[in-house]
Amino acid sequence: MRFVGALVVLLAVAGIAAAQPVSFQVKGDVVVGQKPQIRITATEKVSDVRVELDRDDGKHLTLKPGALAKGQSVTLNIGDGAPGKASYKGTLSAQVPGESGRWSDGITFETLVRAPLKVQYDADHLDLDKRVLQFKPGRAVSEATLVVTGEDGKELGKGAATYKDMPADGWLSITWTQPANQRVLVMRLRAVAADGVATNVELVPWSVTIDHEDVNFATDSAVIEPSETAKLDASLAKINEVIKRAQRFMEMKLYVAGHTDTVGGNAKNRKLSLDRALAIASYFRKQGVAIQIVVAGFGEDVLKVATPDNKDERANRRADYVIGPAAGAPPFKGPYLKAKAAWKQLR
Questions:
Q1: Fewer C-beta within 10 Å: the chain N or C terminus?
Q2: Contact 47, 23 (CB under 8 A)
Q3: Topology agreement, domain 119-203 and domain 208-345
Q4: pTM of the model
């Protein structure tokens, strides 16, 4: 039986005897969120059907499905659905019409509620150049496979790995092979726990940084001078090319990150860099870029060239243009994350 994100092996324990008026079957192997179940079936008309069970932790369970017609079945939940194994021992009994004594038979079975397998992933644990993905499972896994798809929607490569021990920090590695100079669009990871539970995770590491010539702004200004629009038009052509190539496979978002040099106070530079990012993003929107556009101002916190305070450095007065998936975290690493700039959607 298949469940979303997990593979569950269904075990059945049945009790059948030639003269018994009722039989039972146990669905004892389930995932968290489900409860083990016992199915009672009458082979003849019976009344006052009852199941008395003692669990190995000392808890007692009484189930009373009542009367059943010949051939009728009833399914009852067992336990509380908490993860782990449990052993049950007890009796299945019923009253058969016309018989003075009560029919009863002993039953024993085990149940297993399997914990789900969750996988953590972030961009800092992916090296596309070395083709190594690290992921952090919620519990020990025995194996994993990876299928990598390119920008044309076709398979680029595959990877597989087996694991014996979980490292102290919890991160596991899997590598893959692919042709050179091909950009990864989607990665599909399948991890399998030692008890057979599996999970499938779709990762979208794809992003494109638009190479461009930086727009020059006047000091303390966020106004785009007419002489600078040719630079933006050249960037716009590259942006539209990426959108055309990838729009068949995903929804995209354009990130415009503004920066300043170290002249002036940090708060002032944050606002100035955001205003410049807004000016550039607004230009792209007016020129027909229809995908989502978000902006952020990093001020002097992510310098391209390290300088002392109050240093006029043209290379630091810049903006980054990055296209990434519409869903998920912004495709920025390292100092961008430490700067903690807030992304705002262009209206």
A1: C
A2: no
A3: no
A4: 0.59
Phi first, then psi, for residue 70 (nearest 5°) are -60, 125
Three-class secondary structure of residue 316 per DSSP: helix
216 residue type, one letter: N
The 10s digit of each residue's pLDDT in 153-204 is: 899 999 999 999 888 789 999 999 999 888 898 899 999 998 888 999 988 8
CATH number of this structure's domain 119-203, picked from the four choices 3.40.50, 2.60.120, 2.60.40, 3.10.590: 2.60.40
208-345 is classed CATH 3.30.1330.60? yes
Any idea how long the chain is? 347
Task: Determine the Cα–Cα distance for residues 237 and 247; give it in Å rounded to an integer.
Answer: 15
- DSSP run (H or E) holding 175: strand 172-175
- DSSP secondary structure string for all residues of 187-233: EEEEEEETTS-EEEEEE----EE---PPPPPPTT--PPPGGGHHHHH
How far is residue 76's CA from residue 182's CA, in Å, rounded to a whole number? 54
pLDDT in tens, 285-313: 999 999 999 999 999 999 999 999 999 99
Name the residue with tokens 């067992």.
78
- Tell the burial category of 298 from Cβ atoms under 10 Å away from its Cβ (0-12, 13-18, 19+): buried
Q: 305: closest CA among 318, 288, 296? A: 318
